[in-house]
Automatic annotation (TrEMBL):
Belongs to the 5-formyltetrahydrofolate cyclo-ligase family. It catalyses: (6S)-5-formyl-5,6,7,8-tetrahydrofolate + ATP = (6R)-5,10-methenyltetrahydrofolate + ADP + phosphate. GO terms for biological process: folic acid-containing compound biosynthetic process; tetrahydrofolate interconversion. This is 5-formyltetrahydrofolate cyclo-ligase. Its cofactor is Mg(2+). One of its GO terms (molecular function) is metal ion binding. It comes from Flavobacterium zepuense.
């Protein structure tokens, strides 16, 4: 399948999910994350859920991170440059919905990409080698390329891996892990 076909497939599958299924599967994903050896790290980049896209709800992950006293980083997207600016999430961070339905910080303390220890990556689909299909703008590939070597890249997916390799090129950054409600995939970590 092409990336375009895979995007259509997974957008359709997501739209078929009920709110109850999304909440149940998001909780299962968060619980599976607890089994990973990542919790000694400090700086965790977390995407905030686009509910209009029926993404994995990350509020439970946010609660886990807060409970473990981790530094949580969230981003604001610039659709002109297809780049993201990252901010420390604090009690004073004001979030607004962008025109695309993305909860984003208005302002705050900027954090450089090379500070991240762990990045939770939104995706539509992924394969057994850790290649992923996103929304097609390359925001996360650009961001992950700016991160320090050794940053841990964790995809979150409601669905299991595609058995066939997803088309990819040199600018596509593969995942280290992908967590689904049923299992944790590890890609050569």
């Amino acid at each position: 399948m092409t990336k375009k076909e895979l995007r259509q497939k997974y957008k359709y599958l997501r739209q078929e999910l009920s709110i109850e299924e999304i909440e149940h599967m998001s909780l299962a994903i968060a619980n599976r994350l607890l089994t990973l050896d990542i919790w000694d790290n400090i700086y965790f980049h977390l995407f905030l859920t686009m509910e209009n896209q029926k993404e994995v709800h990350t509020d439970v992950i946010l609660s886990i991170l807060a409970g473990k006293d981790k530094e949580v980083i969230v981003s604001r997207s610039d659709f002109t440059s297809c780049m993201m600016v990252h901010y420390l999430l604090t009690d004073n961070t004001k979030l607004v919905l962008s025109e695309y339905g993305i909860p984003e910080p208005v302002e705050g303390i900027e954090v450089p990409s090379n500070k991240m220890d762990v990045v939770f990556v939104p995706l539509l689909g992924f394969d057994v080698q850790g290649h992923r299909v996103g929304y097609g703008k390359g925001f996360y590939d650009r961001f992950l390329a700016e991160c320090k070597p050794g940053v841990i890249k964790i995809g979150l997916s409601f669905f299991e891996a595609e058995p066939d390799t997803i088309p990819h090129n040199d600018t596509d950054v593969a995942l280290d892990y992908c967590v689904t409600p049923q299992r944790v995939y590890s890609f050569g970590v």
